[in-house]
Amino acid sequence: MIDRQSFDYGNGPSDFVLDVLICSRKPMTSPKQAEFETGRRNQFQVADVSRRLGAALDIVVLCDFDGTIVEIDTAEHILDRFAQGDWRALDQKLDSGEMSLEECMRRQFMMVKVRRKVIVDELDGSARVRSGFQELVDHCESVGIPFTITSAGLDFYIKHFLRQRGLEERIGLVVPRVRVTKDGVKFAFPKLVDHSSVSFKDDIVRLNMKKGKRVVYIGDGTTDFNAARIAHYPFAVRGSKLARLLSSHDIPHEELTDLRTVIEALRRMK
Question: For the domain with range 53-74+127-268, which CATH number is right: 3.40.50.1820, 2.30.110.10, 3.40.50.1000, 2.60.120.10?
Fold first, then answer.
């Protein structure tokens, strides 16, 4: 299993699977063990082919969650339902550049004082998955391209969302660690690696680029702009704030309403 708490930038589930398979190979001492080892070796070969295909492409896919994988901004939805205070005023400071993403989320969610189950139940009834998500994950896995969610949202809900769909072990996560307390919802964000990064979102793009990877970035919001503008292949949800920002800065990008658009683009990449 992948330990999501120790998930590191740039690693995808395929890396962990391959390591587990290598470490699990043992001398065969019986026919039963031999049969088991044959199945294990076949699994290893499939993983190895997938890994080599992804390595040949040198592509990684980084994808926002709120408003991108799901059609609503789950953080905004929870703030709208449960925040005790003017959280929108902080949003305006974020959009204008007066406040960082991390500081905005910390201050906004200190206004939310409900139990985790209340949040999960509320989002389960509201968050609709965007068309093409499952197909995009399947495609990336089939060709060995790591797929990672980069989100400033609620980690426990994202994990719940993935677990419901059997995807928790197939997708990487770069998200803040979130604790629900009686004093509010508290965030601990990933530390920045590159001093020039604005937030952890563009930080992971830079880290992958330093490793020689070509980065596909998919998002929808203002907080995705710094990551999308430096990515090799930026995608924005059509009509979103990100789409408008990229257009206003004359940054080439592709717009989508269905995530299968990304699959078509990946097939064209060499």
Answer: 3.40.50.1000
Query: Would you state the structure tokens that stand for residue 264, as one six-digit string?
Result: 């078509």
Give the strand pairing for 172-174 and 147-150: parallel
Contact 73, 130 (CB under 8 A): no
Model confidence, pTM: 0.79
> Please, which residues bridge with residue 256 across strands?
237
Contact 246, 253 (CB under 8 A): yes
213: three-class secondary structure by DSSP: coil
pLDDT for 198-243, tens place per residue? 999 999 999 999 999 999 999 999 999 999 999 999 999 999 999 9
> Is residue 259 helix, strand or coil?
coil
Amino acid at 2: I
Run of H or E residues at 178: strand 177-181
- Hey, where are the domains in the chain? 53-74+127-268, 76-124
Report how far residue 105's alpha carbon sits from residue 78's, in angstroms, rounded to the nearest whole number.
12
Instruction: Using pLDDT thresholds of 50, 70 and 90, give the confidence band for residue 170.
Output: very high
